[in-house]
Amino acid sequence: MPRLLYGSYEEDDEKPRWNTAPLGFEDENFVTLRYKWHAIKGVFDVNKYPKTIIDVSRIPMSVFNGKAFEIHRPLTKFCRKDPPRYSLSLLRVNHYADSFKAFSYRHDSRSFRKSRQYYDEMVGCTTAAKDEDVIQWLQMFVHSVGEDEAQFLLSDAGRFVSWSKNDALFSVSDRY
User: Fold this and answer.
1) Which residues, given as ranges, of the chain have pLDDT below 50?
2) Sign of dihedral through CA atoms 77, 80, 82, 83?
3) pTM over 0.85
């Protein structure tokens, strides 16, 4: 699935117009409601690697050896090499960079790319167009599952998780 990179750019006049979240929710806790500016659709150099969905029921068990070649093409024999065209794809992924704090808080194999310079260069390419297609998702989700269930499921939205050394316990801290 092709992805579209959204940055952290906000126009000053956008903040008062957020107000798209249902009562009990704050727009600022959801990057999908907060950030609307993105890179040019279909430009691989900016949007980078597509994501993959695999129907594992159609793959022989002998193929699974416990290791993925890479996260974007975990089963190279069954995953296409060329990126799908954004304009023709039925499924697409919106990839949100979020704030630098959110972008850089995880320590994983990509930590070498968590510098401020890398972040600034990446989000510098995300002001090509503005899109508000997804801002209705939260209202539809609340309508679909009910207010109480939505509050429960999204109670930690907009917060960071801090894992303990034994990874069994975690705490949630404020995002901003």
Assistant:
1) 16, 165, 167-171, 176
2) negative
3) no
Listed in order, strand segments (DSSP E) in 34-169 are: 37-38, 93-96, 129-130, 159-163
Are the CB atoms for 151 and 24 separated by under 8 Å? yes
Q: Are 59 and 78 in contact (CB under 8 A)?
A: yes
Q: What are the distances in angstroms from CA 41 to CA 2, 73, 96? A: 9, 21, 14
| pLDDT value for 93 | 92
Calculate ∠ Cα 119-127-5, nearest 5°.
60
Spatial separation of the C-alpha atoms in residues 149 and 146, rounded to whole Å:
6
Predicted local confidence at residue 51, as pLDDT:
86
Q: What per-residue confidence (pLDDT) applies to 169?
A: 45
Q: How many CA atoms lie within 13 A of 101 on its CB side?
A: 8
Phi-psi domain of 125 (left: phi exceeds 0; alpha: psi -120 through 50; beta: other): alpha
Apex 162 CA angle, 9 and 102, nearest 5 = 10
Which run of H or of E encompasses 3? strand 3-6
Pull the structure tokens for residue 24: 């009990």
Question: Nearest 5°: phi and psi at 146?
Answer: 95, 150
